[in-house]
Design brief:
- The structure holds 2 protein chains of 2 kinds.
- By secondary structure, chain A is an all-alpha fold.
- Chain A contains 12 helices and no strands.
- In chain B, helix 7 crosses helix 9 and helix 17 crosses helix 19.
- Classes of the chains: A mainly alpha, B alpha/beta.
- At the A-B interface, helix 1, helix 3, helix 8, helix 9 and helix 12 of A face helix 2, helix 3, helix 5, helix 6 and helix 8 of B.
């Protein structure tokens, strides 16, 4: 158990971070460098600045909104709660966010309450929307007929990560922020001190697997969208 | 019998085109493309699902070009090409009309027509292009038009049309041919010369009224360029070069493209923009934009009573989505028709007629075009209650004509300048 904990909390983080950063950097580099012999002309795109149109597409999925409102709602809420969860996770690694909020006049109890409320809500909503995306893959014909192993694998892995995360938040075995902050700092100083909480270790294992999987999988779409949309919006 | 290595090499070449490379690596398989695809609408089956079709190439690309594909295989959707699979591609990629409607709605802007074009180019290099389309290309390269008509066919058609117009209007409306030094060189699709000549009468009357010097060419009266549809870039450029040379020979100032969306797209957005032949001594315009300008300027009068019946407009994909020309034809239609009706949806969101990407010319898949790819269009036309559909594309016209006959609809098909011909006051 101790060896497993050390591997998950003391070795894997370096491998996962390196794989993700190098993998994504490589992708961005080759996407950026790939030549485009002819311009893609497709109408009608909105007039105006490329950057603004691109951000509009990336942040609000207007194409999806026009064609499939149900998927738009599921997908947009899923991605927004994912963003909330990711931002929230910053609190596990550092007290910086807490200090910043306190400087703005928030109390420690207030921050804890906000975290419970926002983080708890996001944790439930993201589980529900991720599950709904799996159900959609199974029940909507046009999606079922194009869904293969990678589509389900990515979603199931996510659901497992979310479920173990939620389990920690909502169970009596509540996670301990001081422990994870010590852990994060110990990783930066190359002297890992790993929390021995089972739920935490399972959650961390799965999350790191996902992180390493991203540069090789369909989850790449989070990066590809900037390039495909730029291609379409550049005149 | 077909070498997989050759196919795989061509698929690997996706790395050399940013768009293709991104399309290979970015699809989230959300199913939006199928929802907006006219073919999938006509028959909701896996083979007609754009994401599935594109994945035929995507999985092979991943197997050979991504580390994930090499290491993890099916877990990241990578699979090698199966023996003989390539022959099935013909059915898959010639059931896509290349209409690009999916590209408008895809959250990533993935243009499946680019993937279809790539697949067809691979098929072409293996000699698997459907015979009918290959014939059209060869005929065009040999004779200058896709119908293989001799120069006499044009001069005779022109003579006939001039007599018609004389009878109808009492005026000497001319259709000049081979006039070196004319200001405009007019390039229609050959279908508008041989099958639906009413549009050319409209244009001739317009030129007569405006007093513009213009000409057609007896050797080059067909802007259609099927190399675009089969992915045969070499033939496409060869076909195109003949027209550019003819324009130079005629010393025209403007090459005026007729009612043919893909001809204008190749000429304006691919040849001119891509500078295939360097600087050009002429500019490129198209007859929809030209006439719309004249209508806006009030350069001639249109009498709506010439078109009393309800008319609707079908957006050819190559004019609408590929060239951004959606408002101009409508300005003409509204000015020339007493009862103009809009299709829903219209403009860049309009549905394909079901004959795009060269499919319209393929008689062996007529049943597919009538019952599957054209199904949505039939419903759209019926919903307008119009008795005339105007559309500026010879392929759309052929497909729509066959659709209304097949479905026994009381609807006539024509061009935009047909209604101009009926309404223009000389």
């Amino acid at each position: 158990m101790v060896e497993f904990a050390f591997f998950v909390g003391g070795v894997l983080p370096y491998a996962a971070a390196a794989t993700f950063v190098v993998g994504m950097a490589y992708r961005f580099y080759v996407w950026f460098r790939a030549p485009q012999p002819a311009e893609i002309t497709l109408y009608s795109w909105p007039e105006g600045s490329m950057l603004r149109n691109l951000l509009g597409e990336v942040l609000f999925f207007p194409g999806l909104f026009r064609s499939d409102k149900i998927l738009w709602a599921m997908s947009w809420v899923f991605h927004v709660s994912l963003a909330l969860v990711l931002v929230g996770h910053f609190r596990f690694f550092s007290a910086l966010l807490d200090r910043g909020l306190m400087a703005l006049g928030a109390s420690a109890a207030g921050i804890e309450q906000m975290s419970s409320l926002l983080g708890g809500a996001a944790g439930i909503v993201i589980l529900a929307t991720a599950a709904s995306l799996i159900i959609r893959r199974q029940t909507v014909q046009r999606v079922r007929e194009i869904s293969t192993l990678p589509d389900y694998f990515a979603l199931l892995l996510l659901v497992a990560i979310i479920a173990t995360g939620d389990a920690m938040r909502f169970s009596s075995q509540h996670f301990d922020l001081t422990q994870t902050r010590v852990w994060a700092w110990s990783l930066l100083t190359f002297n890992p001190v790993v929390p021995q909480n089972t739920a935490f270790l399972v959650h961390a294992t799965l999350a790191q697997l996902l992180l390493m999987f991203i540069p090789f999988s369909k989850i790449l779409h989070w990066g590809g969208i900037f390039f495909t949309q730029a291609l379409m919006h550049t005149r | 019998m077909y070498s997989n290595d050759v196919v795989i090499d061509s698929i690997n070449a996706c790395n050399d085109v940013k768009a293709l490379k991104l399309y290979m690596e970015t699809c989230a398989k959300c199913g939006t493309c199928a929802k907006v695809c006219p073919v999938w609408y006509g028959e909701p089956t896996r083979q007609y699902n754009p994401a599935w079709r594109s994945d035929v190439i995507r999985r092979v690309y991943k197997k050979h070009n991504t580390l994930g594909g090499k290491l993890l295989g099916p877990l990241v959707g990578a699979e090698d090409l199966k023996d003989g699979e390539i022959t099935e591609w013909v059915d898959y990629f010639y059931s896509c009309t290349g209409c690009r409607r999916c590209a408008i709605f895809c959250p990533f802007g993935i243009d499946n027509s680019v993937i279809t074009h790539k697949a067809r180019a691979i098929l072409d290099s293996m000699g698997l292009t459907p015979k009918r389309l290959k014939d059209v290309i060869n005929i065009s390269l040999k004779t200058g038009n896709t119908d293989g008509a001799p120069p006499a066919a044009l001069t005779e058609a022109v003579k006939f049309l001039e007599e018609e117009m004389k009878e109808e209007t009492g005026k000497d409306v001319r259709i000049p041919v081979d006039q070196v030094g004319a200001e405009m060189f007019f390039v229609p699709p050959s279908g508008d010369v041989l099958v639906n000549p009413e549009a050319i009468m409209g244009i001739a009357k317009e030129m007569y009224k405006l007093g513009i010097s213009w000409t057609m060419s007896s050797g080059y009266f067909d802007g259609a360029n099927y190399g675009l549809f089969t992915g045969d870039d070499k033939s496409m450029k060869e076909d195109n070069k003949a027209y550019v040379e003819e324009a130079k020979r005629l010393k025209c100032k403007i090459m005026l493209m007729g009612e043919c969306g893909h001809a204008y797209r190749v000429m304006k957005f691919m040849m001119e923009k891509g500078r295939w032949w360097g600087d050009l001594p002429f500019t490129i315009d198209n007859v929809l934009c030209f006439t719309a300008r004249m209508v806006r300027d009030g350069a001639f009068k249109l009498d709506k009573s010439g078109n009393p019946d309800p008319v609707t407009y079908h957006d050819p994909c190559n004019f609408g989505r590929s060239c951004g020309i959606t408002e101009e034809p409508r300005q003409i239609m509204r000015a020339a028709c007493a009862d103009y009706r809009e299709m829903t949806p219209s403009g860049a969101h309009n549905w394909c007629c079901g004959g795009g990407g060269g499919l319209s010319a393929m008689d062996d898949i007529k049943l597919f075009r009538m019952t599957v790819s054209g199904k949505k269009k039939v419903e759209q036309i019926s919903a307008t209650g119009a008795s005339i559909v105007a559309t500026p594309c010879a392929n759309c016209k052929r497909q729509l004509q066959q659709l209304v006959e097949y479905h026994k609809m009381d609807v006539r098909i024509g061009g935009v300048h047909d209604v101009v011909s009926n309404a223009i006051v000389l």
